[in-house]
Amino acid sequence: MTWHLDGHQPGILAAAILLASISTVSTILRWWCRRWTGVGFWFDDWLLLLGQVLSYALCAQLIVGIRYGLSLHRDQFTPEEFESNVSNFLKSLYSVEPFYAACMSVIKLSILLFYWRLFRSVRWMKWGIYITAALVTMWLIAAEVAAIIQCTPISKFWNPEAPGTCLNGLTYFKSITATNLVTDAIVLCLPMPLVWRLNASITRRISLAAGFLIGGFVSLISIIRIEYLNNPHDPDTLYATTKGPIWTAAETSLAVVCANLPILYTLIKTIVAHAFGTVRRRSAHAHTATRYPSRPWYTPPGDSIGPGEDTERFATRGRSIPTQVSQRSHSASEGSDGITYYPEKAHVQAEEKGRR
């Protein structure tokens, strides 16, 4: 079969490349931000990197699907060509199914380890992380076993006419996604009690809660994905199953992005603050030029005194967090993640210790 793009295939190819690119950029920025803030790499970073690699498999499956006619109708092929393409497409679908469960589980475990870095001195939070990690691991094992043994013999998955039995494909996919949503909700809600008890303004607490809950966007994609999942053994397989793999790739890739966003909080905040600071300084210069047109040498108090100062301020602001944390006790600095809300954690820890 000559590989050429028809119908929706150019859009599917573009979606696969875009999703892989966005998640890759977010992961690169995460690692750069770790070095920039002076925070060392830990298991959460390595697990997220593994999740990034696993997400590529779901994007690659879209490209393989295009190769075998994904999104095209049955009548666009000869009968022999259609049977061959469907068989090859279902083989690729079967081989990639374990990657979905592995990718989502690894990302959640990475997030839980991130929570551990921040809140491990809070006893109930520590136990919450243990229990949630156990639930995620059990879900992973169940999903992987079901993916492997859903057909007996295995070859019946891509050869429906062969003797044997298979689970209902649609029921299997929806069950896996629905149970995944349960663990999503637990992981998202786990740090909320600590966030709301921080010694910070309500605006600050809302912004922090929003940073943690951004992963709810991935849960929304999971719900949409359930709606578009179809039986892989539909008579018009290549067309009927088009949207399911697309939403699966979107879910895993954007899960990587959402897991990276809390780490990038400091970077984003610094860039925004620097941008607004530049605008304010330009406004101040314009105001000064109006008030003192005959005194071009005049420098208002507190204004910039040199072209290198902005760069110095930017670098200092970005690297001041580890320095501030290091001035606290050793136990507080061990969990430092280089993000600006970490100092409030000490207040939460003090409250917890006082209650114990």
Report on the structure:
The protein has helices at residues 9-36, 43-67, 79-119, 123-149, 169-189, 192-196, 202-213, 216-228, 237-240, 243-291, 309-326, 330-334, 342-355; strands spanning 151-152, 165-166. Strands 1-2 form a two-stranded antiparallel sheet. It has two domains: 9-264, Rhopdopsin 7-helix transmembrane proteins (Up-down Bundle); 270-287 and 304-355, no CATH class. The chain contains 13 helices and two strands, in the order ααααββααααααααα. With 356 residues, the protein is an all-alpha fold. Belongs to the SAT4 family. Residues 321-334 have a biased composition (Polar residues). It is found in: Membrane. Residues 344-356 have a biased composition (Basic and acidic residues).
How do the helices and strands line up, and which of them pair or pack?
Layout: H1 9-36, H2 43-67, H3 79-119, H4 123-149, E1 151-152, E2 165-166, H5 169-189, H6 192-196, H7 202-213, H8 216-228, H9 237-240, H10 243-291, H11 309-326, H12 330-334, H13 342-355
Antiparallel strand pairs: 1-2
Helix pairs in contact: 1-2, 1-10, 2-3, 2-10, 3-4, 3-5, 3-10, 4-5, 5-8, 8-10, 10-11
Family: Belongs to the SAT4 family.
GO cellular component, one term: membrane
Membrane topology: Multi-pass membrane protein
